[in-house]
TrEMBL record:
Entry similarity comment: Belongs to the immunoglobulin superfamily. MyBP family.
Domain Fibronectin type-III: 124-219, 320-415
PANTHER family xrefs: MYOSIN-BINDING PROTEIN H, TITIN
Its biological purpose: Binds to myosin; probably involved in interaction with thick myofilaments in the A-band.
Name of this protein: Myosin-binding protein H
UniProt feature, compositional bias: Basic and acidic residues: 25-53
Length: 523
């Protein structure tokens, strides 16, 4: 009996397991086999139990959370699963079409390490442009990138590529820091693409490129001299000064430069010339008057040329006037005449300076400046004095080193006149001193000179005595006492507080005396 009932039990167990664990992956459905021979039932049952236990043990762990073993059975119309004969619980088989479950649980992944922040490379160079193009080279300029990152900028790498090719080639072996670079040894007529990359320890930037390729060809330019504005007029220097002039020009290819003076080559012992591709330098170490003249600069390219003239004038102080003589003296006037100097210092005479000296003081005083004529009249001379005269010539450098001195002197004589007083009948004019205007109190400031005034009459003329605090003021240079037409004055030079007090003016003659006083305050 046991041999007959064992085969049907093997068919119902997988079916029940399929209903219980439907979502589980199905590896392989249990084969439907015919009932085993009756003579070997125990062996077949043992083999079937081993085959069903293997997938059940492999899927037991992952399916445990979804299907706990002790859940209450849900009501269903389907027949309950039949347990196996050995009492072992059959594992649910995976559903058809599902992937096979893993053979073993996955190992725990290692904890991720925090990544270090990567240093950003520099940004792209700015304003890449072509500065100049010649027949075999061209020059680039650009600006430094806005951001260089944490690392210091190592420099720039310039690469070129011919038009129609994709082969970029670096033209500099090592990075450089200049923002200007000339690419040489190119063929005329080629079209060159170019790009510039900023390089640092953190990497290379996005390259800066030109939108259009550069055509290598020489740009012809007619010769043109750009004479500075201050050299378009006469260039004046003093004797002994250095002459150092730079005159720029333009033209392509490089022009031929030549200098001449009076259609003759320059004397290289006196003038040094140095030419570059863009300018010419004219240099004289110590200028002499013989270096004055017109120098002609010529810039020539093949048959085209441009010319400019440089006018140099080397000047010095003039010589003295000639033949100065005293023409006439009348009253308090003197007339003088002279001739221009023999040497004008290689510059126009701007005028003459006339000076006089009186015999008493011996000092020279200027009476006329920039006199443009060669004659003059000097007035307002003091009667009774004897005068000498001299004349300087003047040009752009200044006055002559010496002056022409008149051989004679001018004596201003007094006019002889005889005075015939009118006869007036005699009458008694005797009168004692009397002050018609008294002194007044004054307040002055320290350090500022002040005056005291009063007026007196009397005949014969009274003698005036000044007193301070009843002490007579004698020959003291601090005080100056004057009397004119009866007006008495006392000047106190730069008074101090010590000079304050009561000042008295006393007038005395044979008929009597009179006095007035005032107070002086010095603050």
């Amino acid at each position: 009996m046991t041999g007959k009932t064992a085969p049907p039990a093997k068919k119902t167990a997988p079916a029940a397991a399929k209903k219980k664990a439907a979502p589980a992956p199905k590896e392989e459905p249990a084969p439907k086999e015919d009932p085993a021979p009756k003579e070997e039932p125990a062996q077949k049952e043992e083999a079937a139990r081993k085959e069903e236990a293997a997938p059940a043990s492999a899927t037991e762990e992952p399916l445990a959370p979804e299907h706990p073993p002790e859940q209450p059975p849900a009501p269903t119309d389907k027949p309950a699963p039949v347990p196996t004969e050995a009492g072992a619980e059959a594992a649910p088989a995976p559903a058809e079409g599902s992937p096979a479950p893993p053979a073993e649980p996955p190992a725990p992944a290692p904890e991720p390490q925090p990544e270090k922040p990567k240093e950003e490379p520099p940004s792209c160079p700015l304003s890449l442009a072509v500065e100049e193009v010649s027949e075999n080279s061209f020059t680039l300029t650009w600006k430094a990138p806005e951001q260089t990152g944490r690392a210091v900028l190592d420099g720039y790498v310039v690469e070129i590529c011919k038009d129609g090719s994709s082969d970029w080639k670096a033209v500099n072996q090592e990075p450089f820091l200049s923002t200007r670079y000339t690419i040489p040894n190119l063929s005329s007529g080629d079209k060159i693409h170019v790009r510039v990359t900023a390089v640092s320890a953190s990497g290379a930037s996005v390259p800066a490129t030109l939108e259009q390729p550069v055509l290598i060809r020489e740009i012809l330019q007619l010769p043109k001299i750009r004479m500075p504005r201050h050299l378009r007029e006469t260039y004046i220097r003093h004797v002994g000064d250095a002459v150092n002039i730079m005159i720029p020009f333009q033209g392509k290819p490089q022009p031929e430069v030549s200098w001449t003076k009076g259609e003759q080559p320059l004397d290289t012992n006196r003038v040094n010339i140095r030419n570059t591709a863009r300018d010419t330098i004219f240099y004289i170490r110590q200028a002499q008057r013989g270096d004055s003249g017109k120098y002609e600069l010529t810039v020539r390219i093949n048959g085209a040329e441009d010319k400019a003239t440089l006018d140099i004038q080397v000047v010095e102080t003039p010589g003295p006037p000639q033949n100065l003589k005293l023409v006439d003296v009348w009253g308090f006037n003197v007339a003088l005449e002279w001739t221009p100097p023999v040497d004008n210092g290689n510059s126009e005479i701007k005028g003459y300076r006339v000076q006089k000296s009186d015999k008493k003081s011996g000092k020279w005083f200027t009476v006329l400046e920039r006199c443009t004529r060669t004659s003059c009249t000097i007035s307002d001379l003091i009667i009774g004095n004897t005068y000498s005269f001299r004349v300087f010539s003047e040009n752009i450098c200044g006055l002559s080193d010496s002056a022409a001195v008149a051989s004679g002197v001018a004596h201003i004589e007094k006019t002889k006149t005889t005075y015939q007083p009118e006869k007036i009948p005699q009458r008694d004019m005797m009168e004692p001193p009397k002050f018609t205007q008294p002194l007044t109190d004054r307040t002055t400031t320290r350090g500022y000179s002040t005056h005291l005034f009063c007026s007196v009459r009397g005949f014969p003329q009274p003698k005036i005595i000044w007193m301070k605090n009843q002490m007579e003021i004698r020959e003291d240079p601090k005080y100056i006492a004057l009397i004119e037409q009866g007006v008495c004055s006392l000047e106190i030079r730069k008074p101090s507080p010590f000079d304050g007090g009561v000042y008295t003016c006393k007038a005395v003659n044979p008929l009597g005396e009179a006095s007035v006083d005032c107070r002086l305050d010095v603050k």
